[in-house]
Write a structure and sequence with these properties.
The structure holds 2 protein chains of 2 kinds. Chain A is α+β, with helices and mostly antiparallel strands. Chain A has 5 helices and 8 strands, in the order βββαβααβββαβα. Chain A is globular, with a radius of gyration of 19 Å. The chains are: A alpha+beta, B mainly beta.
Chain lengths: 191, 63
């Protein structure tokens, strides 16, 4: 498996491929008898999937004086990175009381995962200088956060950015996964 | 297992009211204890509770 190349940017705007740590996603907000309850899921690592030109336009329209806010985004698409060692065991969501299927590391399923032959997942391992454990993006678990929230946490949460081409590879695989056609399971009573 | 914490959450729960709203059981985030590598920990849940202020956050401000 080829190592995923990353770079460090010092730009102020968000970019496709940015990897951020401790990203909070609001799961629900409920109010009962005057008590408000907010549940958030904290993802240790997540990657920005929103198209980069959309992010650039959003940034320009926010920092420059424009007649409209036409290019403002209302949310940014992200996907979590899971520690692959937890994924092998199906335990990466155990703290959310979610049991996932096991993907045996040393069998063909583990190889398929690491070779990115499973459309749902994108495996990444990095050079030793990159402070991220081998990880898996789960495209099925994409979520959205607001632009303002990400801009607020970026100074503390930014880890690195996936380099061009590697980033496009992720974006293309995500788009392909999202656009897949779910065909119906054949009904035995139909001819 | 979810983690519960106190969080005023702006106008919805002023700190003085939130203090008595719910018990606190703070569990350290897996990320906080990481030393060298990111992504070692697992996703986890944080639940925040607080009283809704008497006259804030409940008004319909639509025009």
């Amino acid at each position: 498996m080829q190592q995923t190349q990353v770079l460090k940017t010092n730009g102020s705007r968000l970019c496709q491929g940015d990897i951020l740590k401790d990203v909070h996603w609001v799961e629900y907000v409920a109010e009962r008898s005057g008590v408000i309850e907010v549940a958030r899921v904290v993802f240790p690592l997540a990657i920005v999937l929103t198209q980069d030109c959309d992010l650039e336009q959003d940034h320009l329209f926010r920092i420059e004086s424009r007649a409209t806010q036409d290019k403002w985004l209302i949310s940014i698409l992200m996907a979590p990175l899971y520690n692959v060692e937890h994924v092998y065991q199906g335990e990466h969501l155990s703290e959310l009381d979610i049991q996932m299927e096991k993907i045996p590391k040393s069998k063909s399923m583990g190889n398929f995962l690491r070779n990115n032959e499973r459309p749902r997942y994108h495996y990444m391992e990095f050079d030793e200088s990159v402070p991220i454990v081998p990880s898996v993006i789960d495209f099925k678990h994409y979520f959205s956060v607001t632009v303002n929230y990400l801009m607020e946490i970026k100074p503390m949460a930014y880890v690195c950015s996936v380099a061009p081409l590697f980033r496009e590879d992720i974006a293309q695989r995500f788009a392909s996964y999202l656009a897949r056609v779910g065909l119906p399971v054949p009904d035995s009573t139909c001819f | 297992m979810p983690t519960e914490e106190q969080d005023p959450f702006g106008e919805y729960a002023p700190a003085s009211q939130t203090d008595a709203a719910s018990p606190v059981s703070q569990k350290p985030s897996p990320v906080e204890v990481e030393s060298e590598k990111y992504g070692i920990g697992k996703p986890h849940r944080i639940i925040v509770r607080g009283n809704v202020a008497a006259d804030s956050g409940t008004k319909d401000k639509r025009k």
